[in-house]
Write a structure and sequence with these properties.
It contains 13 helices and eight strands. The chain is of the alpha/beta class. It has a domain at about 10-210: Arc Repressor Mutant, subunit A. An eight-stranded mixed β-sheet has the order 2-1-3-4-5-6-8-7. Helix 3 (about 50-55) crosses helix 9 (about 165-170).
């Protein structure tokens, strides 16, 4: 007891090579990229939100302070385009690259395999297979709908996110923080980052990340729903430095409709720097998420 084996990030070959089940004798821990809190504790956190979203949070970028674009380019070439592509037996590299870029351009959106397949020029079955491998390879993760008894019309499809926002940004062609600042997908990349911070908080506490969302047929959508200690946390992400007047509209719509018998708390995370306390909603700046993360 107490002996550790540290492996690389490539888990596919390792798992296939194990000849025994090892049930009850090993634990598998998924190590996420750094959280913002970890970077802040080490005095390595980027000074601006756009710098953080552009660079991402992979350890070498901050631990060794290597150029983020160069590192991400190598990561895509060696892991995604070689190891993952070999596992899926992809023959058409261009189609696989296009598929990766399409997934990155859809962060925070519902998974539509028919649309993905059509845009990538592949079959639906191939799109499902490739996304499954990206999920198993810890490249993407899926947020599932939060099921309650309040409506039978909730949308059932999952939403797609990347485990690192910098990787998603790189795949859609963002090469500088200035480019990201004016990019039309900046809000989606910000939402992606918020979702990873929520998932890391759960993982660091020894729990499997379980982040849902709420959306009805009329489009009333809460970005994230997390249940912790019989409390439902409803979380919205807004990338702007100021808070628009309608920012609380969806939270106000859903608050009385959440599960009876449970306490609910509403949070809004935005791209500004000042915490605020509005009626029924706690507003947190991007660089001060501790009040929320400590409760989930």
């Amino acid at each position: 007891m107490g002996r550790f084996i540290l492996t690389g990030s490539q888990q596919f070959g390792m798992i296939e090579a194990i000849t025994q089940s090892l049930a009850g004798r090993v634990s598998l821990l998924n190590l996420w990229p750094f959280s913002l809190a970890e970077l802040q504790a080490a005095n390595r956190a980027p000074a601006t939100l756009d710098s953080l979203l552009h660079a991402g949070l992979f350890p070498p970028i901050h631990g060794r302070q290597v150029d983020s674009d160069a590192w991400l380019q190598s990561y895509v070439a060696t892991y995604l385009e070689r190891d993952v592509r070999m596992l899926t037996k992809v023959q058409d590299l261009a189609a696989f690259q296009r598929f990766l870029q399409l997934c990155a351009g859809r962060v925070g959106q519902f998974v539509n395999f028919s649309s993905l397949a059509s845009d990538a020029g592949i079959s639906r079955a191939t799109a499902e297979s490739w996304l499954s491998v990206l999920h198993a390879g810890f490249i993407v993760f899926l947020a599932r709908p939060h099921f309650t008894n309040i409506s039978k019309r909730l949308i059932k499809a999952p939403k797609i996110y990347f485990t690192d926002p910098g990787l998603a940004a790189w795949l859609i062609g963002i090469r500088t923080a200035d480019h990201l600042r004016t990019h039309p997908l900046r809000g989606s990349i910000f939402e992606n980052w918020v979702m990873t911070e929520l998932a890391k908080a759960a993982a660091h506490a020894g729990r499997a990340p379980s982040i849902g969302f709420l959306r009805d047929k009329e489009g009333h959508e809460i970005d994230a729903i997390i249940e912790s200690d019989n409390v439902l946390h409803a979380i919205e992400a807004k990338s702007g430095q100021t808070i628009p007047s309608d920012a609380f509209k969806v939270l106000d719509f859903w608050r009385p409709k959440l599960q009876p018998g449970k306490t609910s708390r509403s949070w809004l995370i935005y791209g500004g720097d000042t915490p605020q306390f509005r009626e029924h909603v706690t507003v947190l700046p991007w660089n001060g998420l501790a009040p929320l993360l400590n409760q989930i």
